[in-house]
Amino acid sequence: MQNGKVHPRQRTKVVLLVVCVFIVCPSSFRAQAIGTTDRAFADMSWSTDSTGPRRFIAVHGRRAAIFGYSETGLEVWAYPVQIVSSYRITFVRQGETTGIDGQNILRRISYSPEAATRIYAGPDFIVREKLFVPLDEPVAIISYETESTRPLDIEIRFAPVLDLMWPASIGGQEALWSSNASAYLLSEVAHRFTASIGSPDIVAHDETPNNTLHLGLEPGLAFTIRAGGDRKTARVVIAGSKPGMDASAIAKSILEDEPSLEKAAVDHYSDLLSHSLQIQTPDAQANRALAWSEIALDQAWVCNPDLGCGQVAGYGPSRKARRPQYDWFFAGDGMVAVPALIAAGHYARAREELEFILKYQDQKTGMIWHELSQSAALLDWPKYPYMFVHVDLTFDFLSTIGDYFSATGDQDFVKTHWLSIQSAYEYCRSLLDPKDGLPHIPPGKQGAREQDPLTDELALSANWVAAAEAFAHLAAAAGHDAAASEASTAAQRASQTIGQRYWDERQNFWIIGHTRSGAPVAGRDIGPIHIIGKPFFSQAQRDSIINQLATSDFQADWGTRGRASSASTYDPNSYASGSVWAVSTSSVSSAFWAEHRPATALPIWNALVPWSSLDSLGHMHEALAGDYYHEEEESVPEQTWSSAAFFTAAVNGLLGLQVYGTANRVVFAPHLPPGWDTITLRNLHAGASEITIRMVQSSNQVHLEIQNDGAPVEMVFDPEIPFGAKLQGARLGKQPIAAKLEENPQDTHAKVEFTMQHGSASLTIVHTGGVAIISGSPQLLTGEPSKEMKITGVDLKGRVYSVDFDYVPSEASSFELRTPWTIKNVQGATFETVAPELYRFTISAHSQEKESQIYHHGEATITFASERSE
């Protein structure tokens, strides 16, 4: 304060530009400008005040990335090289000598698809640190916008690295200060890679003396930029280059292009959301999680200058030996991403991922590879024991190609890559045991289980059936009828054998596989849940499996445990023996929807929605602990397949949406939650058709509005209606249309088939009666155990409706029913009227004893008056 007036805060902007430039390969994915962002894109920005040392942050480009934690600092990569690590900042106010550690005053983090901003609140200043990585440049730009009552120095400290991603390495790195370049120059003795880290606006910097005395200095290098006074901006450029490329010229170009680069990124994500499958529900959190899953898929597309472009497995900090988790290529992870890309309508990207995988197929055996480090091109990578180790991936690959072809009808892909497809099939055949027609894992190889390699696996055998069926379909499409017939016969034989080999009569559960000595592994693992609808086991056996999976033994409030909590080998904090994985939880929810058990399916899928805000906003962890809601120790904070599987489960499971490009057919069989009165789907691509669907449901009808901007397409609309409801009729426009009532043991559907012509149309299905169950969304708190009710099944016989559930006696548990029927009596719960035709049923807490924290099984039976007219 001076002369009775308070000086306004000085608002200055300091830009830190981190530019990492290496060999640049052409990209076929240049962003196309589409103008300003729309509201849907703006809604993708969100922030958190939870900024502790465990909050991961990442900003992604196709050729570079920034990521890390505030506690250990950020790292910057320009593939395949790590440029710097331990990037941290300290603030020093004018007239003071003691700095303020940035992590101590970090108060908020704001995320948007193209950038992330960290907000620091000091005693008399606010600093906004914006992290940005352009789409197609090996560049990172960090800008600082400061509001301060006096000039503020920002000290930036980092560890220069200039080394390749594990397991390759560069020897003889050296860092020198150059006054002419106003930069630190990083080099290595072979001069294959160099880098500069500097700024024309540096006001102070560390020296790099050639001696052995550290004099108590902190490790790494540091420079200071100043905010305030006449210095409105300051730029720091970190540039890498090959011999013959001038890093300073590249940095200058980046500085000049920075506004256009940021606009290109904003436009790219706006365009991505505008053309992807858009799912709009009444649940804002679910909408955001779904949209960010599509963003996460796009952010996992990485272009390596030597290897090409493909999906990486995710993003996490470097651990041992400069190995970021998991910013390198896995074929298996890519095959989880492809169904999500198909579901989102990104058929071209799905094809490119399949072709990236085919690019590194073993030409001698046809085997599909496991992993590629970003530095694999600089090594004799096949000699390392990481590439061709998992036999299951080749089986999965054939199935994935089959799914891609079914959805797209892409005959050109099949014809172009037929020899590679045939080679992969022959490799799978080579692993078959002639005695039972099932694949066996050769010595020195692995199946899906890395922790305890087996000689055969249920998942591998089931995937052989799927692979053979897919190959038969592909062979027929390519005109190879004999090969198609042989593959179909092999699939049928294996299908008949699986149930005999992989069933445990004692536990009434499937066997996961057999050890090298031939002993069965029956540890009650979740197993390959996606096969539950296949006829490998009897209906009674399948019911036994899915009934057990529905219980609290497997289900936590945040997803499905990989192993039953009652198993002797269960370890809730083990990566593979009891933790909760998003990818398997998604598969479980899809399996329950496929089995028409929506009352159990929806809470399982819904448990994953909070994962998108647990750590790196918009992204999902790899795995959480099995006993308390928190990250599993080894989990990666941004796991691509978690986001991919969550989205695929929503599209194929919750919405029952399948596109058959080869048949020009769309199936829309939604299990819409009773609490959602409407849902809108935009940008649904089916062959030459682009379709918009809006579905509205009420107590006695389902109404569908469709806009088809392309060619006619065959439509199958098969929505869930209230359990036990009866059809009153259906009409397409003003004309009656046939509708079929489908009554399943735990739900009811109404099915209509018609041709959707070009233009708009409406369809209405009228029904009466029935009952719909509504379960609440989990309210998850970090560190809390599972305590929500688990609905394990429902049943309706006449007018007697029963709900089976697991519950914690010390916790009040409830569910709601929507029905026009009159309640006659209730057993096992109390009820109250919430609204007309809406009732809440409560199982009251009745014990505070310690053992009451253990789940118990309960049942509520509701009898409705039979004389009620519908």
What topology does this entry show?
Layout: E1 10-19, H1 39-42, E2 46-48, E3 56-60, E4 64-69, E5 73-78, E6 81-93, E7 100-101, E8 106-112, E9 115-121, E10 125-132, E11 139-148, E12 152-164, E13 174-178, E14 183-187, E15 194-198, E16 204-205, E17 221-227, E18 237-241, H2 247-275, E19 278-280, H3 284-299, E20 301-304, E21 308-311, E22 314-315, E23 329-330, H4 331-343, H5 347-359, E24 371-372, H6 392-408, H7 411-416, H8 418-430, E25 456-457, H9 458-477, H10 481-501, E26 503-504, E27 509-510, E28 513-514, E29 520-521, H11 539-549, E30 555-556, E31 559-560, E32 580-581, H12 582-594, H13 598-606, E33 623-624, E34 638-639, H14 640-654, E35 657-660, E36 665-668, E37 678-686, E38 689-697, E39 701-708, E40 713-717, E41 720-721, E42 726-732, E43 735-736, E44 740-743, E45 748-756, E46 759-768, E47 772-774, E48 790-797, E49 800-807, E50 813-818, E51 823-827, E52 830-835, E53 838-843, E54 856-864
Parallel strand pairs: 36-40
Antiparallel strand pairs: 1-11, 2-8, 3-4, 4-5, 5-6, 6-7, 6-12, 8-9, 9-10, 10-11, 12-17, 13-14, 14-15, 15-18, 16-17, 19-37, 20-21, 22-34, 23-24, 25-28, 26-27, 28-29, 30-31, 32-33, 35-36, 37-38, 38-39, 39-46, 40-45, 41-45, 42-43, 42-46, 44-45, 47-50, 48-49, 49-54, 50-53, 51-54, 52-53
Helix pairs in contact: 3-14, 4-5, 4-6, 4-14, 5-6, 6-8, 6-9, 8-9, 9-10, 12-13, 12-14, 13-14
